[in-house]
Amino acid sequence: MTRPLLEGLKKFQEYLFEVGLARSVLALPAPRMLALSAPSGEGAEIPNIFSRLILEEEIEHVARDLFVSGHYSFAVQEAYKAVDKFISDKVGPLSVSGTQLMEVAFSPNAPILSWSGRVTQSEIDEQKGYQRLYSGAMLGIRNPVTHEFNWVEEPDVALELIVFAQHLLRKAKRASKIQLQAAVAKSIP
User: Over the stretch 66-98, which tens digit does the pLDDT of each residue have?
Assistant: First the structure.
Protein backbone atom coordinates (compact mmCIF):
# COMPACT_ATOMS: atom_id res chain seq x y z
CA MET A 1 0.00 0.00 0.00
CA THR A 2 2.75 2.45 0.95
CA ARG A 3 4.96 1.73 -2.08
CA PRO A 4 2.28 2.61 -4.71
CA LEU A 5 1.48 5.78 -2.78
CA LEU A 6 5.17 6.80 -2.74
CA GLU A 7 5.51 5.98 -6.44
CA GLY A 8 2.48 8.17 -7.20
CA LEU A 9 3.85 11.04 -5.11
CA LYS A 10 7.21 10.75 -6.84
CA LYS A 11 5.59 10.85 -10.31
CA PHE A 12 3.41 13.80 -9.31
CA GLN A 13 6.45 15.68 -8.00
CA GLU A 14 8.35 14.96 -11.23
CA TYR A 15 5.36 16.20 -13.26
CA LEU A 16 5.26 19.47 -11.29
CA PHE A 17 8.96 19.93 -11.94
CA GLU A 18 8.59 19.21 -15.67
CA VAL A 19 5.74 21.69 -16.20
CA GLY A 20 7.58 24.39 -14.25
CA LEU A 21 5.40 24.53 -11.14
CA ALA A 22 8.24 23.36 -8.90
CA ARG A 23 11.83 24.58 -8.70
CA SER A 24 13.27 21.19 -7.94
CA VAL A 25 12.30 17.66 -7.15
CA LEU A 26 12.77 16.61 -3.54
CA ALA A 27 14.40 19.68 -2.05
CA LEU A 28 14.80 17.99 1.33
CA PRO A 29 15.69 14.44 2.34
CA ALA A 30 12.77 12.08 2.67
CA PRO A 31 11.15 12.03 6.09
CA ARG A 32 12.33 9.33 8.50
CA MET A 33 8.96 7.61 8.38
CA LEU A 34 9.65 6.65 4.76
CA ALA A 35 12.72 4.70 5.84
CA LEU A 36 10.79 2.00 7.64
CA SER A 37 12.24 -1.41 7.03
CA ALA A 38 10.43 -3.22 4.27
CA PRO A 39 9.07 -6.65 5.00
CA SER A 40 11.38 -9.45 4.07
CA GLY A 41 10.96 -10.52 0.50
CA GLU A 42 11.89 -9.52 -2.99
CA GLY A 43 11.33 -5.75 -2.54
CA ALA A 44 13.41 -5.61 0.64
CA GLU A 45 16.62 -7.06 -0.77
CA ILE A 46 18.33 -3.85 -2.01
CA PRO A 47 17.42 -1.67 1.03
CA ASN A 48 18.63 -4.44 3.33
CA ILE A 49 21.90 -4.67 1.41
CA PHE A 50 22.25 -0.88 1.73
CA SER A 51 21.86 -1.15 5.50
CA ARG A 52 24.49 -3.89 5.71
CA LEU A 53 27.02 -2.22 3.39
CA ILE A 54 26.80 1.49 4.12
CA LEU A 55 28.21 1.94 7.59
CA GLU A 56 29.95 5.32 7.44
CA GLU A 57 27.74 7.75 9.32
CA GLU A 58 28.44 10.70 7.02
CA ILE A 59 27.05 8.80 4.02
CA GLU A 60 24.40 6.71 5.76
CA HIS A 61 22.91 9.82 7.36
CA VAL A 62 22.40 11.70 4.07
CA ALA A 63 21.70 8.85 1.63
CA ARG A 64 19.74 6.10 3.41
CA ASP A 65 16.26 7.67 3.45
CA LEU A 66 16.62 8.88 -0.13
CA PHE A 67 17.79 5.47 -1.31
CA VAL A 68 15.08 3.52 0.52
CA SER A 69 12.46 5.94 -0.84
CA GLY A 70 13.58 5.26 -4.42
CA HIS A 71 15.34 8.59 -4.99
CA TYR A 72 18.52 6.94 -6.24
CA SER A 73 20.06 9.93 -8.01
CA PHE A 74 19.59 12.11 -4.96
CA ALA A 75 21.06 9.42 -2.70
CA VAL A 76 24.17 9.19 -4.90
CA GLN A 77 24.41 12.97 -5.09
CA GLU A 78 24.28 13.35 -1.31
CA ALA A 79 26.86 10.58 -0.78
CA TYR A 80 29.40 12.33 -3.01
CA LYS A 81 28.62 15.71 -1.49
CA ALA A 82 29.38 14.13 1.90
CA VAL A 83 32.78 12.94 0.61
CA ASP A 84 33.50 16.41 -0.78
CA LYS A 85 32.48 18.07 2.49
CA PHE A 86 34.56 15.69 4.62
CA ILE A 87 37.69 16.32 2.55
CA SER A 88 37.04 20.06 2.47
CA ASP A 89 36.72 20.12 6.27
CA LYS A 90 39.85 17.98 6.71
CA VAL A 91 41.95 20.07 4.31
CA GLY A 92 40.89 23.39 5.79
CA PRO A 93 40.03 26.68 4.18
CA LEU A 94 40.44 26.51 0.41
CA SER A 95 38.31 28.35 -2.10
CA VAL A 96 37.77 25.29 -4.30
CA SER A 97 35.53 22.24 -4.16
CA GLY A 98 34.76 19.15 -6.20
CA THR A 99 37.30 18.16 -8.83
CA GLN A 100 39.64 21.07 -8.10
CA LEU A 101 39.63 20.32 -4.38
CA MET A 102 40.55 16.69 -5.02
CA GLU A 103 43.36 17.65 -7.38
CA VAL A 104 44.85 20.02 -4.79
CA ALA A 105 44.22 17.84 -1.73
CA PHE A 106 45.72 14.66 -3.21
CA SER A 107 48.30 16.19 -5.58
CA PRO A 108 51.15 13.72 -6.16
CA ASN A 109 53.80 16.46 -5.93
CA ALA A 110 52.51 18.61 -3.08
CA PRO A 111 49.55 16.89 -1.41
CA ILE A 112 47.68 18.23 1.56
CA LEU A 113 46.40 14.72 2.34
CA SER A 114 48.56 11.63 1.94
CA TRP A 115 48.80 8.04 3.15
CA SER A 116 52.58 7.74 3.00
CA GLY A 117 55.84 9.60 2.57
CA ARG A 118 55.65 8.96 -1.19
CA VAL A 119 59.18 7.48 -1.22
CA THR A 120 58.73 4.18 -3.04
CA GLN A 121 57.23 3.89 -6.50
CA SER A 122 54.21 2.11 -5.01
CA GLU A 123 53.59 5.00 -2.60
CA ILE A 124 53.92 7.53 -5.42
CA ASP A 125 51.57 5.48 -7.61
CA GLU A 126 49.02 5.21 -4.80
CA GLN A 127 48.98 8.99 -4.35
CA LYS A 128 48.64 9.58 -8.11
CA GLY A 129 46.01 6.90 -8.55
CA TYR A 130 43.82 8.03 -5.70
CA GLN A 131 44.09 11.66 -6.79
CA ARG A 132 42.66 10.54 -10.12
CA LEU A 133 39.97 8.43 -8.45
CA TYR A 134 38.85 11.31 -6.22
CA SER A 135 38.88 13.95 -8.95
CA GLY A 136 37.31 11.49 -11.40
CA ALA A 137 34.53 10.68 -8.94
CA MET A 138 33.70 14.36 -8.58
CA LEU A 139 33.86 14.98 -12.34
CA GLY A 140 32.29 11.75 -13.57
CA ILE A 141 29.77 10.96 -10.83
CA ARG A 142 29.00 13.89 -8.55
CA ASN A 143 28.71 16.51 -11.30
CA PRO A 144 26.42 14.55 -13.66
CA VAL A 145 24.19 13.29 -10.85
CA THR A 146 23.86 16.86 -9.57
CA HIS A 147 23.09 18.44 -12.94
CA GLU A 148 21.11 15.71 -14.70
CA PHE A 149 17.61 14.71 -13.64
CA ASN A 150 17.38 10.99 -12.74
CA TRP A 151 20.95 10.26 -13.82
CA VAL A 152 20.79 7.05 -11.75
CA GLU A 153 17.48 5.20 -11.86
CA GLU A 154 18.46 1.65 -10.92
CA PRO A 155 18.93 0.74 -7.25
CA ASP A 156 21.85 -1.61 -7.91
CA VAL A 157 23.79 1.07 -9.84
CA ALA A 158 23.07 3.61 -7.10
CA LEU A 159 24.26 1.16 -4.46
CA GLU A 160 27.51 0.52 -6.35
CA LEU A 161 28.17 4.26 -6.60
CA ILE A 162 27.38 4.82 -2.92
CA VAL A 163 29.69 1.96 -1.90
CA PHE A 164 32.46 3.61 -3.97
CA ALA A 165 31.77 6.93 -2.21
CA GLN A 166 32.07 5.12 1.11
CA HIS A 167 35.44 3.66 0.04
CA LEU A 168 36.68 7.14 -0.87
CA LEU A 169 35.46 8.51 2.46
CA ARG A 170 37.17 5.73 4.43
CA LYS A 171 40.40 6.25 2.51
CA ALA A 172 40.25 10.01 3.20
CA LYS A 173 39.74 9.30 6.90
CA ARG A 174 43.02 7.35 6.93
CA ALA A 175 44.94 10.12 5.12
CA SER A 176 47.22 12.35 7.15
CA LYS A 177 47.27 16.08 6.70
CA ILE A 178 50.65 17.36 5.60
CA GLN A 179 51.72 20.76 6.82
CA LEU A 180 51.08 23.19 3.98
CA GLN A 181 54.54 24.74 4.24
CA ALA A 182 56.18 21.31 3.91
CA ALA A 183 53.99 20.45 0.92
CA VAL A 184 54.79 23.73 -0.84
CA ALA A 185 58.53 23.45 -0.06
CA LYS A 186 58.62 19.93 -1.50
CA SER A 187 56.99 21.08 -4.73
CA ILE A 188 59.57 23.84 -5.33
CA PRO A 189 62.64 22.49 -7.20
Answer: 999 999 999 999 999 999 999 999 999 899 999
Q: What is the DSSP letter of 175?
A: P
3-state secondary structure of 121: helix
Quick one: 153 exposed, middle or buried, by C-beta within 10 A (0-12, 13-18, 19+)?
A: exposed
pLDDT tens, 9-55? 777 777 666 666 655 555 444 444 444 444 455 556 878 899 999 99
The CA distances from residue 154 to 98, 161, 166, in Å, are 24, 11, 18
Q: Tell me the C-alpha distance between 102 and 136, whole Å.
A: 9
Judge whether 110 and 187 are in contact, CB under 8 Å. Answer: yes
Q: How crowded is residue 114: how many other Cβ atoms within 10 Å of its Cβ?
A: 22
Q: Are 52 and 85 in contact (CB under 8 A)?
A: no
CA distance 19 to 9: 15
Regarding pTM above 0.70, the answer is: yes
